Amino acid sequence: MSVILDRKTAPAFHAVEKIEMIHASEKRLANNIPVYAVNAGTQELIKIEFIFSAGMYFQQMPLQAATVNAMIEEGTSKMNAAQIADAIDYYGAFLEMGVGQDSATITLYTLNKHLRSTLPIIEQIIKDATFPQTELDIHLQNKKQKFHVNNQKVANIARKRFTELLFGSKHPYGINVKEADFDAIKKEHLIDFYRKAYTSNNCKIILAGKIHDDVYTLLEDHFGKDDWKAVADLKPINTTITSSEQKEEVILKADALQSAIRIGKVLFNKKHPDYQSLQILNTIYGGYFGSRLMSNIREDKGYTYGIGSGLVSLQNSGYFFISTEVGVDVCKNAIHEIYFEMDRLREEPVSEDELQLVKNYLLGTFLRSVDGPFAMADRFRGIMEYNLGYDYFDRYIATIKSINASQIRDLANQYFDKSSMIELVAGKK
Fold first, then answer.
1. What are the φ/ψ torsions at residue 357 (nearest 5 degrees)?
2. Exposed, middle or buried: residue 134 (CB in 10 Å: 0-12, 13-18, 19+)?
3. What is the pTM of this model?
4. Domains and CATH numbers, the chain
């Protein structure tokens, strides 16, 4: 018997009261590597993420961290790149590399029954990468060509210059790649960084999925010894942030049809007591599709296909940004509206309806972000790397539920001050 749905009546709304998360357990290998595990799921599948403090923050020269991470699977003393790829494919596994400002990762997705066969391959990559010269030359050539293409795009020009203005051109978060860097980076630079960064005393492991006891035995066998300790400490070259005193800059591109706009300021990371409240303010302002920036500058004015704002949390700093690309003929108008919406939040209280809408959106988004063991492991990593506990999420939910319009306006007055913002346009203004 078929059931006819009443499409005139909306489904019942249920407020998110409490979000249940499986907490990661912690064990230590014999060499003191922490192993965090989110043991959940019904499928015989596991994700193993090796995390190293080996991001751009720690490199001694441009391209060093990213090239090491990209090249680490290109060959060992026992296997070449093709053999590594074929072996991973044979077992239906998947290998993923990643590098960011602070950390670098090597992540294996595999069926539990094949872990005994795939984990030795990961061990070789982590302990015995050789960075073959031929593959390195091809990699750098391809990256250099891509660099030339991207360097013509106003969005890329603005993105790179913006971080320089925020942090300074000599700070690890502000250093950007230049053409000469592709010729300067050599194999020995990669090996030096690799031997200092991809080591047992610089490693954390996160497991997610259906985890059996033998996983720990295998990890101990392959990664629990002291045969891959660092030969020397890895330290950043400079940690002094020198934000630009010049608050406005235009990078003129005479043939530009669009202008890229970046506006923002150095702030703080998620350990700051105002970070979670500021996330809510940012969502109202430009953090989702129904935000004020989107409603005004896209929907009402039609100046852009998309505009957004965000908070970036880094382990040693953080920043707020606004980003969009608009037609060169409406660039000034768009910037005016960006500040207009800032001023509205500083001067007028947010309506209860709008605030409730954003609260529901954020609670729903968080609920979706902890759906499944891999997602919960990602959330855990987001607190583990800042030495935060699971109470961070409890405080986040409580902040969303309790924040009011008066607090939102106070935050806007504290942080949305035009005079504190750095404004960059690439194209024409």
1. -60, -45
2. exposed
3. 0.92
4. 25-223 (3.30.830.10), 248-427 (3.30.830.10)
